[in-house]
Structures are given as C-alpha cells and as structure tokens.
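As a warm-up, study this chain.
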Amino acid sequence: DNSLLEGIGRMVGAYSDEVALMNSLTVNLNFLLISFYNPTKQRFKIILEQDAFPTVFYACESHILQRGFKPEDCLVYVKPHPDSKLLDTSDILNVIEEEGDSVALVLLCGIQYLTGQLLDMRGITAAAHAKGCKVGYDLAHAIGNVELHLHDWNVDFAVWANYKFMNSCVGATGGAFMHKKHKNNKFPKLLGWWGHSEKTRFDFNSDHDFSVGIKGYHNSIPSAVSLACIAASLEIFGKTNMRDFRKKSILLNCYLESLLEPNLKKYGINIITPSNYQQRGCQLSITFTQYDADKVVAGLVSHGVLCIVSLGILRLSPNPLHTSFMDVFRFVQLLLQILDDLTETK
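Now compare it with the structure written out below.
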C-alpha cells in the first residue's frame, strides 16, 4: 500500500505519512474514535449532524456507552431549519460556540450524502479548535469529488470509503487521515502486527516497535485485490488534478441544473441541493411532489439507468470521469418522458 499513499494524499490534501489504506470506513472510524474521543466530566459531548449516515451514529453511540456515558447526554445535533434540508454554517458555528466547553469531538460529514451539501470544513475546524475540541470528518462522499486540504485545514482525523467517487468497487479498502501533529501521540488505540515498524515487522517479535502516525493504526494486511482497484483509480486521477476535475464537475452539475430548472414547476420537482455551486459537490438531489419516487426510479431502471431512491430523494451525480454533457442531456430527456408517462397513467 505504500506506493499508493502519495496519490491518496493528493486526493485529500495531505502528506503521504498522514494517510493510510486499511479496513473500511466504519472500522477506521471506530479505531480513531478510540483515540480522539476521550470524554471527561467536563468534556464529553460529540457534535453530529442530525441526518448523518447511520454508521456514524452507531459508532458514536457505542463509544459513548463503552466510556460509561449516555448517548442522550452526549450527542449534540446540528439541524437544518424546518423549511430546509440544508445545514446553515452559522448554525454549526453557533452550536460549537455555545456547547464547545463541554464538547470533546466535532464529527461531521465533508459532503452530506443525501443533499450533496459541501460543508465549510476549514471554518468549522478553526471554530472547533478555538473551543478546544478535536475535529473529525466522514469524507465518504467528498474524496474524489471536491478539493480537500486536510493538512492545511488542521483537521485532526478523517475517514472515507474508496468505492464511491474513487470508483474502486463496492467493499474497497477504506482510507484514514491523521494530522502529523499527532504522529507521536500516546492516545489509546487498537494495535496489530501490520502497524509494526516496517524495518522490524518481519522479525516477528513483540517489542512494540510500532510505526508513528496513522501507519501505527494498521492492524492487518490490506487486500491486494482491493488495492489494485484503488491503484487503477489513482492512475486515472493522476492524469488530471482536482482543481481541473472540479471545474468540469461544476460545469456538468450546472448543465444538469439548467436542464431541470425550466421543468421544476410543471413536474413538481424540488432541487434540495444548494443552488450555489461552491456549496455542493458533484450531486443534485431532487424530490417529487406529484409522483411516487419509487415509480420514477423503476422507470429509469427499465431504461438502463442504474439508480436508487433514498428517503424519497433521487440523487443525481454526473461524475466527470465517466459522464459526458450528452449523457446529462439524454438523462434529463428520459426523466421527463418517464414523468409524462406516469402523468398519463394517473
């Protein structure tokens, strides 16, 4: 995996010794919560988004309970306004300011998986650190999607999956980041043989000669087959850079939006993703007020479009690596035809 770390580091804005390819997102989150959530009587809370992916809730709840605390006392949620599905940055900063003295950890997404909203990670991290909180991010929908600068933003840790925008197949080995300021930490952690120093790993002794930084969190050997998929993805990303990738992503997303907008009222379509392209990733999430979303998806699938609906939300993502402007045009024409067909059958 060492040969891939420089490329992974570029994807998240980190040095190669700040990143690791190991386990899965949830396992890595649990590993790093052992180190970064150490509650005291004064600091015991975790700030989460209300609609975080379930695995984040489960991981946090399990660690809270294992430390002898209660989730209802420890979990503080940042919530959208009643008339919106989007988080307001000022609300997040206000919660950090108001609760910060009792907060051990701020754990948020980089991009909200349902709405596609891109959070201000730099600003949130600075505000949390000013209150003495540790900061971590779930980057499942951010890596390979937007520019990230985890080291420069001074983020404490982050975890991600490599099977979404990293295109490395379902079940691909996950990734983790830990800022090098923590490389010689004495935090509690789970240890395993693969975290041993590379110089002495194959001496097969138990002298606790562990690698520093995130490498010391390795427990076992990552899958070579999975790493090969990640290597292929990094090779493709290596032909461009995230700045140019992001420009193409914004153009595709805005084109998709421009085709949908004239039809929103007629078909009862709502775009719940931020209208400001700087506040969203490569995603437009839409809901329907006049149609059953499951029937819309069934129509799309019958025409060869691979998609699912979650909580009544259809997430559209014109990934620049494998989506053309013509693909976007054809998709919208198909979607409108399906909605017309559903109208006729009412």
